[in-house]
Sequence to fold (227 residues):
Amino acid sequence: MIWIRACLLKQQFIVSIPIPGKQRLVWLRAGTSDIEVFKKVFIDCEYSLPFEMTPRSILDLGANIGLASLFYAQRYPAAKIVAVEPSLNNVEILKRNTLDWPNIRVVQAAAWNTDGTVNLVDPGIGHWGMQVAAADLTRAPSPVAALTVSTLLKQNDIDHLDLLKVDIEGAEKEVFETSDEWMKCVSAVVIELHDRYKPGCSRAFFNAARHLPEECWVGENIFVWKA
Fold:
């Protein structure tokens, strides 16, 4: 019935799925990419660190409905995790998924190069692929708070960031072009780059991460870290 509703009738609805090996459930939107992402995160374990580290501070930029944050929360229960997501539709499920995880704090905001306000733009793939654009009166307004990584770290009392996870649909260009102030306190990054949406994302990131010489690709994610 779920397959019929999601695939044949193209209906979107909420379902709960147990985390493999755990007694906890996560909430997903059938008929969207949530189930595919669940497989990548919890079945294929594409966010597993390819190096030895027990992070105590994790910043999840583009947390969506919280699957990566949950993956790290169960592996590193002592870590402080800040899950940052701009889309209200995603945040509603993100909060539901992380309600019983006290080490995860949810922030509804977009990561950007300045503090202020930006617009969310739907490129045509739904809430799981919303993109951020500078506030522009010519656009249909969909404003959301914008915060720099520096501000996010200060607001959450993080002096050193062990792990930065980034999946922000092209906004990594703006974030890493202005990262000199905070990037030096980051020990490792896992990121999905989106040059297909915005040329220059890879250039901005690798220039900012030049102090992290180790590199490994896992699926669509790139890990960089200190030796």
